[in-house]
Amino acid sequence: MxxxxxxxxxxxxxxxxxxxxxxALQLKKFKRILKWGYDNSKLYRRIYDEAxxxxxxxxxxxxxxxxxxxQKNDYLDAQAKEPWPYGDSLCVPLExxxxxxxxxxxxxxxxxxxxxxxxxxxxxxxxxxxxxxxGFRNTDRVFIPFxxxxxxxxxxxxxxxxxxxxxxxxxxxxxxxxxxxxxKELKATALMxxxxxxxxxxxxxRTKLKMDPRxxxxxxILCAGEPGANVPTTKxxxxxxxxxxxxxxxxxxxxxxxxxxxxxxPGGVHVNxxxxxxxxVDIETGEPIEEPNKPGKLIMTxxxxxxxxxxxxxxxxxxxWGEECECGRTFRVLKGGLHGRVxxxxxxxxxxxxxxxxxxVVRGMPELGDxxxxxxxxxxxxxxxxxxxxxxxxxxxxxxTVQPELARQLRLKTNLAYIIEFHEYGSxxxxxxxxxxxxxxxxx
Length: 444
Ligand SMILES: [Zn+2]
Prior knowledge:
Layout: H1 19-40, H2 42-50, H3 72-79, E1 97-102, E2 112-116, H4 117-133, E3 141-144, H5 155-164, E4 167-170, H6 176-186, E5 190-193, H7 195-207, E6 220-223, H8 232-242, E7 245-247, E8 249-252, E9 256-260, E10 268-271, E11 276-281, E12 296-302, E13 313-321, E14 333-341, E15 346-348, E16 351-353, H9 355-364, E17 368-379, E18 382-391, H10 399-414, E19 419-423, E20 438-440
Parallel strand pairs: 3-4, 3-5, 5-6, 6-7, 17-20, 18-19
Antiparallel strand pairs: 1-2, 8-9, 9-10, 10-14, 11-12, 12-13, 13-14, 15-16, 17-18
Bound molecules: zinc ion.
């Protein structure tokens, strides 16, 4: 591993800090935010007191894993208390809050996320690391084909573009065709979107505008919001469709943009270890995992966000450590980005199953369109897996020619058999932001 020139990194000192110094910095910052949470948030104090834990119990790196984790429900319980709307998880006077966002609330009541001006600057700074590592510079004109609203998505992307010096074009209110025409008109060089929408836009460009998206001149695409950019076959589809480099990042409301793929595309995302602590722990036992290639769930801490701190938040996201990257960064790599959520990685017919592996197969077959739907249901006592796919237009393939190979690859990848349904091209749902292609009808 060789360190590159200083203009290669957004923060050349922190991103290349030797591991032992980085860990010392992380321990120092962890203790600081832990004390802040305990002293200022009734929520954290309640959780720690109930567990018989005190921040001063953390003296060494190993002690960090003894700190009780916080769950999404804890924030919701706190919000139900006074003062409205953030309840007793708020660590600063309400007058200091300048930003409101919320989680999508797909699993029920959303979590409200307050930020101070200082917090917000920090979150934008985190995103500047992402953009810079992916080659965004002041020569780029970045098109964002989304409207920003109560969700945190794309706001920081917008501000970080400004911070890095890019010219940013907000394409929110336009429809897909208008966005494509605007990209063409302005000769935009880069794009930020969900993997789903990257493919939807390419499809609309070809079928509705009769233009090849490769001719629009987009050089790089930053993906967010879904795991697709780290599914190799999906990434390949996007790069092929746009003739552009596609980079992943992982982030969220509670933790900001905490990770990024670099231009070396190491098959995963670097964790921003200067600004966060990301622990990988065994899903069953909670024991820390340090070795590569062993799946676990991620426990997240953000060091400097003060209004509503994130301290050992149980993200329920699954990943694994990967190998060192060639880019010279000492920040570790999470192989394959996010692999799914603990509650999505489920047992089907007694086999541990992750829907992302089905995506890998579908997107790896050129005879199939980009969209698919995967449904788990029950017939009597047996689990039933139904996969709905579309044939890609213009390949000459028929269900009869594609079905056997698709079934074979699915069995190879997941050890399971599927009922495969072929649907007319364009008939399966198209999504812009959070795709819902996996449905588990066994859970009520
Ligand atoms: Zn790298």
